[in-house]
Amino acid sequence: MTEDPIKFWQHIHGASSHFPIALLIFAWLFDVGGTILGRREWRVIGFWAVIAAAVISFPAIGSGLTGQLGWFGAKTWEAESLILHRNVALASGGLSLVLAIWRIIRGSKISGGEWIFYLVLLTAGVGIVGYTGFLGAYVARGY
What we know:
Blueprint (H helix, E strand, L loop, with lengths): L4 H33 L2 H29 L11 H27 L5 H29 L3
Helix pairs in contact: 1-2, 1-4, 2-3, 3-4
């Protein structure tokens, strides 16, 4: 039995997409929870989760862009909902990367107003990546 190449791509894209979404939400939980509860060690977990989310988002974005352009001779996708999904995914992946670089550069020196601004951007990133996932499900179901 052979696998349909398009279905195989969907499995790859789906598997590579859900993990960075979960990691970004996980990072948000530990960074916000650590701030509220005063647990600086939780921010270390948030630090690594943001970095992992940014790095692991590259295969998801790559497989999405490649699939959209027509893998395996498939017709290039042009649906409006797919274009919105792609653009929102690029925004969430880009924001994840910016947050990861910010954390690497500043390390544990982020505090006060800068930390609040970081948490606001992280919260926006979680919202955007959640919306990306919603649109992905919307596209996958053919709506």
